[in-house]
Design a protein that fits this description.
By secondary structure, the protein is an alpha+beta fold. The protein has one domain (61-265, 285-355): Beta-lactamase (3-Layer(aba) Sandwich), CATH 3.40.710. It is 31% helix and 17% strand. The strands form five sheets. Strands 1-3-2-15-14-13-12 form a seven-stranded antiparallel sheet, sandwiched between helices. The protein has a three-stranded antiparallel sheet with strand order 4-7-5. β2 and β3 form a beta hairpin. The longest helix is centred in the first third of the chain and has 14 residues, at 69-82. It is globular, with a radius of gyration of 19 Å.
Length: 383
C-alpha cells in the first residue's frame, strides 16, 4: 500500500506501522502527529470507498464518531471560562424544560455522563434524527433513568444533544456553526458537524463490519416488559434506528445533519490541530481554544467506576477521557482525549507536547484496537 504525506526523519517508524496496518484490515486512513505544535507526521493512504475507486487524499473527511464528544463539550467549557455557564449550577437556569435539570442535574453532571438521560423513552424515527429541535426536545422531555449525580452511564448518542443544546441556549448557535466559527476558522482544523454541500464529495464511505442488531432488539411491543437497564441500553443505541449511524452513515442526510455524539467528520490533521492547542495548555499561535484552568478541570477524573453501556470500568472527565492503564493514550499520566467507534482517536499528551489524530473508514467494534494501538506505540518509540 502506497503511503502519502510527509514524516519527520525521527518518526519514520510511524509511517511503516501505518503502512503495515493495511495488511491488518485497514481500508483507508489518515494519521497526524504534532510535536510542540509542529507537524512531524501527516500521512494518508488507501481508499475512500469499499469498491476501491476513490483514493484517500489529504483532504478526505470521514465520520469519526465519538472523537467529537470532547469538541461539543469544549463549547460548554468555553462558556464556563467566560462565566456564561457555571459547572455546579443547575441546568434549569439556562434550559428550564430539561426534566433531568428539574431533577437536579448540574452542568458538571451533564458533561461527565451523570445526567441520567442516556436514552430517549419516546419512540423516534430517522426523520426525527435530522431535526435538531426535535431531538433536543425529545431529550428534554425524557424522565431521567436515575437521579442525576448518583451514578454515571455513557451517554453514547444523547450526549451531543444534551451538551450542544445547553450551549445553544447561551450562544444561539448549533454545534456545527460554533465549530466553524470558534475552532475551524481560528486554528485551521478540518472538522465539521453538518458537512456543507460543497464538501460532501470529500467524505469517505464507512465500511461497517459490526453485526446489525438482532431482529426485535428494539421491539416497542415488548420494550415495556424489559428490565429498565436493558431497555435503556437498547434505546440508547437505536432510538431513532439510525442514532448510532448504522444504516445511514454513508447518506447525505447523515453527513449534513448535526449529531454531535456520533457524526463528527474530520481529517486526522484536523483532530491533531485541536489537540495541539490543548497539549500546549489551551492556546496555539496566539489563539486561546480554552482557558488553562478550565482545561485542567476538564481533564481531571470527575466520575469513575463500572459503566453498563461500555461494559467496563471507566473514567470520565468533562467531555474528555483521562488516560487510564486499560485505555491509555500512551505511557504518560495526564494524557487525555477520546476514542471513536472502530478505532478513530484524538488525544493530547501535555508531558511531551504530543498531539495525535487518527481517522479511518474500516469500522470494527469497539474503540481501542491493534491498529490505533500500534500507531500510538510507534509514536512513543520515536520520542
Amino acid at each position: 500500500m502506497e503511503v502519502h504525506g510527509h514524516v519527520d526523519s525521527r518518526f519514520l517508524t510511524v509511517r511503516e506501522v501505518f503502512r503495515e496496518n493495511f495488511a491488518h484490515g485497514e481500508l483507508g486512513a489518515g494519521c497526524a502527529v504534532l510535536l510542540d505544535g509542529h507537524s512531524v507526521v501527516d500521512v494518508w493512504g488507501g481508499w475512500a470507498d469499499e469498491a476501491r475507486k476513490r483514493p484517500w487524499t489529504a483532504n478526505t473527511l470521514v465520520n469519526a464518531y465519538s472523537v467529537g464528544k470532547p469538541l461539543v463539550a469544549l463549547e460548554v467549557l468555553q462558556l464556563v471560562a467566560t462565566g456564561d455557564l457555571e459547572l455546579d449550577a443547575p441546568v434549569t437556569r439556562w434550559w428550564p424544560e430539561l426534566l433531568a435539570g428539574q431533577h437536579g442535574a448540574t452542568v458538571r453532571q451533564i458533561l461527565c455522563h451523570q445526567a441520567g438521560v442516556p436514552a430517549v423513552r419516546r419512540r423516534l424515527t430517522n426523520r426525527d434524527l435530522w431535526e435538531w429541535e426535535t431531538m433536543t426536545r425529545s431529550v428534554a422531555e425524557t424522565e431521567p433513568w436515575w437521579r442525576p449525580g448518583t451514578r454515571h452511564t455513557y451517554h453514547s448518542n444523547t450526549y451531543g444533544f444534551l451538551v450542544g443544546e445547553l450551549a445553544r441556549r447561551v450562544t444561539g448557535q448549533t454545534p456545527g456553526r460554533w465549530l466553524r466559527e470558534h475552532v475551524v476558522g481560528p486554528i485551521d482544523a478540518d472538522l465539521a458537524w453538518g458537512v456543507r454541500q460543497g464538501d460532501l464529495s470529500r467524505c469517505a464511505d464507512v465500511a461497517w463490519r459490526a453485526q446489525p442488531p438482532p431482529s426485535g432488539y428494539v421491539d416497542w411491543a415488548t420494550m415495556q416488559s424489559l428490565p429498565p437497564e436493558e431497555a435503556m441500553i437498547r434505546l440508547g443505541y437505536f432510538n431513532p434506528p439510525g442514532l448510532s449511524g448504522i444504516g445511514v452513515v454513508n447518506t447525505e442526510q447523515w453527513r449534513s445533519a448535526e449529531v454531535p455524539s456520533a457524526n463528527l467528520h474530520a481529517t486526522a490533521m484536523g483532530v491533531a490541530r485541536l489537540y495541539a492547542a490543548l497539549a500546549a495548555g489551551g492556546s496555539v499561535g496566539g489563539t486561546v481554544v480554552l482557558d488553562a484552568d478550565v482545561l485542567a478541570e476538564a481533564v481531571t477524573v470527575q466520575s469513575e467506576g463500572w459503566c453498563p453501556v461500555l461494559e467496563r470500568e471507566v473514567s470520565f472527565g468533562l467531555g474528555f477521557q483521562p488516560t487510564r492503564p486499560d485505555r491509555s493514550f500512551g505511557p504518560n499520566p495526564g494524557s487525555f482525549g477520546h476514542f471513536g467507534t472502530g478505532g478513530a482517536l484524538g488525544f493530547a499528551d501535555p508531558n511531551t507536547r504530543v498531539a495525535f489524530g487518527y481517522v479511518m473508514n474500516a469500522v470494527r467494534p469497539r474503540w481501542q484496537n491493534d491498529r490505533n494501538r500500534a500507531l500510538v506505540d510507534a509514536v512513543y518509540a520515536c520520542l
